[in-house]
Fold each of these.
Amino acid sequence: MTVSRIYQSAILNPGASLRLDEKASHHLGRVLRASVGEKLIIFNGQGGEYDALITHIDKKGVDVEVQAFRDKDVEPPIDIILAQGIARGEKMDFIIQKAVELGVRKVIPLITERCNVRLDNEREEKRLQHWQSVIISACEQSGRNRLPEVAAPVDWKQWLPRAKADVCFVLSPHVDAKLPALSLKPGMSVMVVIGPEGGLSGPEVAMAQQQGFSPLNLGPRVLRTETAALAALAVLQVKFGDFV
């Protein structure tokens, strides 16, 4: 039987009793039809996870007893950063979800020249909360116990001069450069920039190269933005991370 993994933004200690938040309680009590005595895994995004046991269920929520701590770590040896041109609707959700599954540490949504998504302050805040929810769900599903970060959307020209990582790539189907033969030590960072639907413009790719980004082409086929993100992250995990 599959044991549910639940994220809770709370201090967790063995032996403590905890009422799960509304979302988790609804998911367990109403969707999964969990019962008293059922085992869970709980994590708070700070590393490691806890065994837990459901002790009470009522209309208002679910109570659990926090049990033994397990110092489990499934994070890649390097920090992978995805700077992604904001894609429309569910495509961006898909990219973030799969990026979390593939081990990304941070997602930076970029407003680029060909980006068709424009967010005012209210919509930006709602979208950030939604993306954070996507990240939590992906961590619950994939077994990660440290929450990746999602940054606030930022304009390309404002962000680029401040972009930093030990190794930086800008993806483009219009360059010939392949992944260079180099290695990264544990704890180092690698960043990949991917455009939205329509890709990055020629001037944007040139600007990135002027800022020290290495151009990168993953092959002769032109990939959709959501495919490019997954392919690039998988390649980086094979080359520098923990894919074997």
Amino acid sequence: MQPIIKINLDHEEIKLIDIPEDWKVDYLGGASLGARIIYDYLSPGLDPLSSEMPILFLPGLLTGTLGPSVGRFVVCGRSPATNLWGESNCGGFWGPELRKVGFDGVWIEGKADKPVYLWIKNGHVEIRDARHLWGLDTDQAKESIHEELKNRIAHIAIIAEQEKR
């Protein structure tokens, strides 16, 4: 398995975490690996929305291979609804592209003091200022990032605040 990118937004630290050997056999990636990582954070007093609670983006075991329907990744963490497990399964290019550039996941914890985004390219990871994206919808943010990077084919996963109704 490839390393996981661990981002601490409190300190703008980026580390590469190697998955323990026994986990590579017992938790093959995606949701099962996410559940194992989250397990260590399931103390009763830790709020799911706390900056200490990680959110994980993890491709599945076969993501990026030539198999059928293998473009999936999960976003998982502790659910504010149940106070236990929360998971969303996603498709598209993002999971395979993450694996293609050398990583088996992104682990984010902490809280940035300003809007930021992650730029991952060819094994290199940067935390970049995203104040100029604040308030944009997902289509506008995607277009702005493409223009900024001068890269029309960059694959982007965007989390945007939903407008209140």
